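User: Please work through this fold.
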Amino acid sequence: MAPRQKREIKFIENERSRLSTFHRRQCSIFEKADELSKIPDVEVRVLLVSPTNISYTFGKPSLINNVERNLMKELEQLEMHEELLRKRNQEELEKSKMLEKVELEDLVAFKEKLEALRADRKRRHEEMKASATLLMLSEETENKKMKIEADPREKYELRPRIPRNYVE
């Protein structure tokens, strides 16, 4: 057998020959589709539109039924997806409302705790100041006692000294 020659595909100017070529090729495409559809578990669909805008279909099972079935499946999937998105949005809205409420309650509780801590810190600061003052006084008294014991002349002088040149 001689090898086939590859034909150049170009636009057919004559309308009548263009239509006859379309119908010839349509028949051969539909024959091939029919052969493929005989293979088990294979669905074949062909849609051809002629140069005169007429559509031709081939399908096993029927193309229109298959397209309709597929469109219905896609529509069901879209509806399920839309319902899922609606539920998610509703849940997120409820969560955000809950978070706003919880956040406000948490902030109020946090503010109260801060105020309690501030009051406690102030009380402790005052206690520390008082104990430091007492400690300083006790150290001063202790130092004076030690001084008095060390120097018998100043034994009776616990009051502050008045300078000699002090005038009232």
Remarks:
- The CA atoms of residues 58 and 149 lie 126 Å apart.
- The longest strand covers residues 44-49.
- The two ends are 146 Å apart (CA to CA).
